[in-house]
Amino acid sequence: MRSLLAGRVGSQVVGSLALFLILVLGGLLYASVGSVTRDILVTQMLINAMMVVGIQLFIGNTGILSFGHIGFAGIAGYTFVLLAMSTEWKERVLPNAPLGLVDISLHPFGATAVAMIVTLLVAVLLGFGLVRSGARSGAVAATVITLALLFVVHEVGTVYADLTGGRNGISLSIGVLLEGRTWVYVALFASILGSRLFKSSRVGRLAQAARDDDLAARSVGIDPAPGQMIALLLSVAIVSVAACLRVFELGTVAPSTFFFDYTLLTLVMIIVGGRKSITGSLLGVVVFTAVNELTRSLAGSGSGAGPLDLVLREGLTDIVLGAAMVGFMIFRPNGLIEDRELDDWVRTRLRRQEPRPAAPGPAPAPALATLRATDVVVDFGGFRALDRADLEASNQHIVGIIGPNGAGKTTLLNVVTGLIRPDEGSVTLKDRSIAGVEPFSIARAGLARTFQTMRLFPSLTVRENVAVASLSVRAHREDGGGPSVDELIAHAGLWELRDRRARELDYGNARRLELARAAALTPVFMLLDEPTSGMSDTESLAMIDEVRRMAECVGAGVVVIDHDLGFITGICDTIHCFDQGTVISTGTPAEIQADPAVQAAYLGVTAEA
Amino acid sequence: MTDLVQTLIDGLGRGSIYALLALGIALIFGVMHLLNFAHGETVTVGAYIAYASLVEMELSWWVTAILIFFGAIAISVVIEFVAFRWVRGAEDFTMLLTSFGVVFVVQAFFVMYAGATVRSFPRPEWADRVWQVGDLNVGVIDVVTIGATAISLAVTAYVLRRTMFGTSLRAAAEDFDAARLMGVRSNRVIRQAFIVAGALAGVAAVFYLMRTGQARPVVGLAPMLKGILAAIVGGLGSLSGAVLGGFVLGITEVVLRAWLPEYLVGLTDAVVFAFIGLFFVFRPQGLIPVEAGERV
Question: Do A128 and B282 touch (CB under 8 A)?
Fold first, then answer.
């Protein structure tokens, strides 16, 4: 946490300023030679940049694909025009405007503010669906909701001519003119800064964790919804101001101003550079402004500016955009610079000089706590995965679960951590029922788990992976305490790798990180699902020590599923053997190994055979 | 009673086109988890084929219909081969944007080739005829559309249920990985899905274009969107659900048109979109949940 926030605002201001200056100075340099059209082009580029920064804030941090942000922009754009037009002009072009709009004329600032508020209200409503669509039901709901918005705005703009001027839109005639580009500069800088602050904030990191892996995020106590909603609202706020500027700059608004073409343009800009990176998105803006200029001059050269040239140019630009979209999706879906930012390398360099934290001592012996599952039944369709299964574990011991494939071990773990709702039976932690509770609440209550198929947050760094877990829990528990994020990282042997992204780790280190992340919840129990899968015998035996060490330093009990008998008999005090959805034997490792029922389950022989 | 029957006939006439498109979209979603925005481009290509055939070559609608049908299959297969094949199995994000990009490439091609303006072609002279049956006004085009759709659906159902090709296709739509393990060849089965989807879209395009008589680069957007919404309402991946979704959408439109006040009739589409969008706000998992979830 401290490590995430330290010096945050200062370094973010510097980083934002760098991006802003590169963009603006580059633009001014280009505009300084050549005709006035270049001046207009630069203004448009800066406004597009702001729009893109706004959209990227949502898509980049949440991973939810929105086709509808330009619809939000449309709402803002029309509201702005309707409020900012002079009354005389409105009487001429929109005499039948409803709601007494004819008599209203606001200063552009006031109109922008109202436009933003109106758009935010729509965003709150749609946001409820967008954040719940998350990773669970795939991208379908988000696609439908955002596309519907885009089309509704376009249809209303086209059809409801009394309000919107219909297909040809409304041309603007505003008394007060904004001089020069001052406000474009201010708004753009504020957007970049806002986006960067959000990205590095607590809420931002939690949202990114959920973007990387929704399920893992919930398992470390993160409820993705609030972060995604905040991202949406910030994003829509930026987009609506950008929309007002765009309308102001074009001097007109029409249904086509904010429709498919502009959606494509902004999306291409975002993905080409790298949708998870602000720097990347701005790079995309520059690249496509340049490409646009190039196709313009290519198509424009030749016979002069006839109507055919215009058609060629429009078509050519769109083909380039569409082809770029398809090409990048096929060959480089994460964009040119993926999730890196301009100042990443500077910061890694600074971090190198931190002193290595001392190893945390073992936590004081925790009060006795029990995790108990009783008579749990789970049916998958006709298949009974768990048939009155029991489990009892105390946090003073290490409990193992073994059993052949399909015996229901992982299913039980999923029930205990809230991923599967049991059909019957009870689950209690410290004698409080946790059956049917949301996974993130269970994680906060003290159950941390790892997954059979490791689930890290690949684009977050090692430190961030551990920090988001720690953050999500400490905000909801008073007892606090426990080792710090850095101590845990050092303790897991990952100190040298702390600024690496999780996807760059090798297998063993990734396993260690998952363990450290679980420990960061300072849980009552750590539930480990096959921590040694894919490891050699020596590595498995080394794992015994590592699991013990991590559990001891946070004072957690351990429940571990594994197939590796060397590992499980070496680490466990008690073992439950599962077969066909129920416990067939419980005892010390030695007792379990001697039990004929266990041998029968593993070898597939019955007692009499 | 008369009103009800009238609504039903009008609604099924419109809904037929959506149902055919939705079925293709659901089929493709089934085999490769791709929400195919580019499906509407079969209609765009069909529209320019119609213009070329009817206006420039002065061929009959019979010949034109056949050309549109095969044109739709061709473009469907080409798009799969050029774009979708290469993003198979990628994240939703990647596939959605790929199909979004394809839409623009096709549209931009026609902007360059034919211009952004509307090109009209003659509709068949019987398309506007109306039969009087008692109090009912039955549009000939509606009857023909419903009939052709019924035949197409019957043929599709036969192919899917009774042939080896259909069985492997359905198996792949249910569980692509399992089907592959059982020896279904992935490239082939996906191509076949695009052929079937293209053929269904071809039939839809013929009757859609007989009604509208216009070619524009963006002509495919509206039917594509309706088809996608219908498929989603039907649960995506459920083939019969998609067909049902198409008819429900068609009937809803007709009912709305009759029910909305005069000055809002133009907003029928907007109301339908808004309704479906809001439905997903409150029920993101859809009418029928798309997928059970992932294994952990």
Answer: yes
Q: What CATH number should be reported for the domain whose range is A370-603?
A: 3.40.50.300
Surface of B (124-163) touching A: CB under 8 A = none
The complex scores an ipTM of: 0.86
Which of A330, A455, A528, A561 should we substitute to test contact with B (largest number of B Cβ atoms within 10 Å)? A330
By CA distance, what is B283's nearest residue in A?
A129
What pLDDT does residue A607 have? 47
C-alpha–C-alpha distance, residues A402 and A563, integer Å:
6
Lowest mean pLDDT, pick from A312-316, B19-23, B119-123: A312-316
Contact A137 B102 (CB under 8 A): no
Q: What span, in angstroms and rounded, lies between the C-alpha atoms of A290 and A273?
A: 14
- In a domain? residue B130: no
Alpha helices in A423-502 (DSSP H): 439-445, 462-474, 485-491
Q: What is the pLDDT of residue A349?
A: 66
Residue matched to tokens 């879209």: B201
Q: How many domains does chain B have?
A: 1
Q: Rounded CA gap, B190 and B187, in Å?
A: 5
Q: What is the pTM of this model?
A: 0.88
Mutation for testing the A interface, residue in B281, B283, B285, B290 having most A CBs under 10 Å: B281
B132 located within any domain: no
**pLDDT higher than 90, residue B112:** no
Report the pLDDT value the prediction gives residue A595, as an integer from 0 to 100: 86
A321:B104 CB<8 A:
yes
Check B282 against A260: CB less than 8 A apart: no
Mutate to test the interface with A, among B37, B82, B86, B104 (most CBs of A within 10 A): B104
Distance from CA of B146 to the nearest CA of A (A): 27
Cβ under 8 Å to A: B residues 73-102 = 83, 86-87, 90-98, 100-102
Min Cα distance B102 → chain A (Å) is 6
Question: Which pLDDT score, from 0 to 100, does residue A107 have?
Answer: 81
Range of the domain at B80: 2-120+137-282
Q: What tens digit of pLDDT does each residue of B173-219 get?
A: 777 777 777 777 778 888 888 999 999 999 999 999 998 888 988 89
Low-confidence stretches of chain A (pLDDT beneath 50) = 1-6, 136, 302-305, 607-609
The encoded tokens of residue A109 equal 């600032």
The SS3 call for residue A527 is strand
* Residue range(s) occupied by CATH 3.40.50.300 in chain A: 370-603
Residue A318 has its nearest CB partner, among B35, B108, B236, at B108
Each residue's pLDDT tens digit, A323-363: 988 998 889 888 888 888 887 767 666 666 677 777 777 77
- The DSSP letter of residue B252 is H
Per the CB < 8 A criterion, the answer to whether A597 and A608 are in contact is no
* B72 lies in some domain: yes
Return the pLDDT at A229: 93
Is B10 among the domain residues?
yes
Q: Nearest chain A Cα to B288, which residue?
A: A137
Q: Kindly report the average pLDDT of chain B as a whole number.
A: 85
Radius of gyration of chain A, Cα coordinates, nearest whole angstrom: 29
Cβ atoms of A203 and A227 within 8 Å: the answer is: yes
Q: How far apart are CA A566 and CA A413, in angstroms?
A: 22
Q: What is the DSSP letter of A171?
A: E
Residue B292 confidence (pLDDT) above 50: no
| CATH number of B191's domain | 1.10.3470
CB contact under 8 A, A333 and B93: yes
Q: Look at residue A601 in the predicted model and tell me its pLDDT.
A: 80
d(CA A248, CA A504): 46
Long-range contacts of B251-260 (CB under 8 A, 24+ apart): B251/B7, B251/B8, B251/B11, B251/B12, B251/B15, B252/B11, B253/B11, B253/B14, B254/B7, B254/B10, B254/B11, B254/B14, B255/B7, B255/B11, B258/B7
